[in-house]
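TA notes. Do not distribute before section.
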Amino acid sequence: AVALEDDFTVFGTAQGATEVTILSVPPKGGGGKSLLDKGETGLSLRKASVSTTDYTYSKKMTVQEDATTGYYDEYVLTPGMDGYWGMTGEQDITVAFDKKYGIKDLSGPSIATKTQTEIQDILEDMIYAPGSDDLMVKLRLKAETPYVWLHPVADVNAPAPLEVGGTSNRKDGYTIVITCISPTTELPPQTVQVENTTFRATFDTTDAVTAKYTVKADDGDGHVAEEETFITGTGVQEAVATVEEAVATVEEKAAAAAAELEKKVEEEAAAAAAAEVQRLAKEAAEKLAEKAAEATPEPPGFEAIFAIAGLLAVAYLVHRRKH
């Protein structure tokens, strides 16, 4: 894929040829926007010389800013050893198109109604005509609206480096400027290049203040991506460490005081429990004594003793009278 206004290169080998012709067919066919020529429609035509030593060719081209996004058909053609296109007897491909198919202009109304498939059929009919030694190869090129994306940026504690990465469909070597700015501070901007659709930058946070930062990637062509991150400066970290140390000390002292208080409470509770047990034991003993006293017979009084003695005396007298 290639972004609008970016470059791309078509290269290869063509043995026996001195020149190749490159045709770009829009997604909408002959009536679509030209890939290479701004303000025009139809097929874009370019040529590239073939090396006489190794038969290689290379052609660098630029996608024009108004090109249609989508897949363009790219054809690399050569008229063969005889120099004529197909069996038309013409060395100019546009003249050959007119002579054989009535297409007078590759960007005019005579080709505007032709689809990509129909144009492919025309080229194959001419190139592969019986008796022709022409050669052709078909490629596909996707034209895209340029974009720049940023991956989420992780929060960091200074002085740890801030790593920033992203993707873009800009060509290899394209420059992306990355900034990292808070409401009061800006870290030194980074200039990086796109490589295999990716880019990466590293910011030094040694002098960063504690704040939320906006990380921005800009291709300088109006395509921007933003992410937010939070950097904790060394000053705040030191203050936090001091507070945490103080809190730890307070917690340690509080734990010791709580343990001492718990021990004292346990001792007092144990003493109170022992006293209560003694009280209950004494109370129970007294109640048992009372019940035991109630269950024991009362010794006879003096009146009962005199009554018994009287009865015994009477019984004795009666006994003596009988005998």
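Switch to the second chain here.
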Amino acid sequence: EPGVTEKKMFGGLAFLIGGNMAVSASGQGGLLLHVDPEETDALLSKPHAQPFQMRGRTMSGWLRVEAEGVQTKRQLERWVSRGVAYARSLPAKG
């Protein structure tokens, strides 16, 4: 994918598209995912999805997916594709 970069973020390895984070392989296991904030509540109803908190604050548009939720290639692709689609929808950062 053109424009993909890797960067250490949030204790893991993040993949950015046009400078916008799509997904991160969490150092704690599982994934950290950047999604459309309007889809956050619906996605939290999926198995193994949890709200992402930073400094005690729940971040809309950000999810943690437990390692159990990304054990198969199909599971991983479903989550990664959501993060990639959202990152692509954002304006590229300088």
